[in-house]
Amino acid sequence: MEAASANRPIRSYVLRQGRVSNAQQRAHAELLPRYGIPFREAYLDLDAEFGRPAPKLLEIGFGMGETTATMAAAHPEKDYVGVEVHTPGVGSLLKQIGERKLGNVRIIPHDAVEVLKSMIRPLSLDGVHIFFPDPWPKLRHHKRRLVQPTFVALLSERLKPGGYLHVATDWAPYAEQVLAVLAAEPRLANTARGYAPRPDYRPLTKFEQRGLKLGHAVHDIIFRRA
Asked: DSSP 3-state assignment of 22?
């Protein structure tokens, strides 16, 4: 997500909104005022946003929110901040927040790079999850991949000492790039020799289960800030 010019930043996503269901629209209207955090150019007080001190985890690109909601339900002692630009996904996670009565999730419907730069304090996060980012497989599109050196440096600045960065992908060439980029960041150290086993906190998604049945390997890459 490095800027191509002063006026045209390269995005790691294309804003295809898709169909928003009636239930998602209703959740968006009723629950976003309570569980959403509008973008602003000022650092958040995350403890104040959740009304308590607790480990703070950032979920970048949560898709339809299934994984985020499942983790938040399984770990009520942790707080999750989800960042997503696609309206159907935001509505889907809001719907799950309402159905599961999850008080430990907040959503910022905005670009992740701008959120990290403007809203997340340095040394404030206990963990960052980037699960199945768009691999942009064509060579000419590699510049759109989210995990780039400048972005990883920004993430590292926002992690507390001991905090972790967890990327999962089923696209082997992207996994190799992620591993190399994270290994080159001096503030991060690999928690495994190469790829890590899937930790218990990351649930298997339906998408992932289908891929595993087809023989698609999933790579978990977990680094920790020194």
From this structure: helix
